[in-house]
């Protein structure tokens, strides 16, 4: 069974997002070993300079990199990444698993994104859309897509 680590910067603040996240984690439990790790968000001012943002991203990046095992496959969620359909994501996860890799990481950064070091460490840069979404909502959307992708692999009726 594939192990999926969803590493996200920050905590889900809204109860409806926590409930949705918990629901998809529960559903995923029958399809994979799912673990959500919340890395602390670097505190920055309300009107941060580029230097302050870079310092925050680098601090968050160090925490994220410390959570990655060397024999895992890592996706960074970033707007400049490649967009995949649900079916393509399913096939990608199947290919990774068939290639002998049992642990897959998905990384969601803070509202300012991810530092270049994390992106460069990633095996695949994945974009949900060219549209911008709140990073907290992105977590729920990603969990739903993982549930859908693994359902496709298991011939579930969830994906239509």
Features:
160 residues; alpha/beta; five-stranded parallel β-sheet; 5 strands
Task: Report a brief summary of the structure.
It is globular, with a radius of gyration of 15 Å.
Q: What does this molecule look like?
A:
There is one protein chain. The model has no long low-confidence stretch (mean pLDDT 95). This protein is α/β, with parallel strands linked by helices and 160 residues long. A five-stranded parallel beta sheet has the order 2-1-4-3-5. α1 packs parallel to α5 and α3 packs across α5 (135-153). The chain contains five helices and five strands. It starts with a strand and ends in a 7-residue tail after the last helix. The protein is 43% helix and 22% strand. It has helices at residues 15-28, 50-66, 86-98, 116-121, 135-153; strands at 3-9, 33-39, 73-83, 103-108, 124-127.
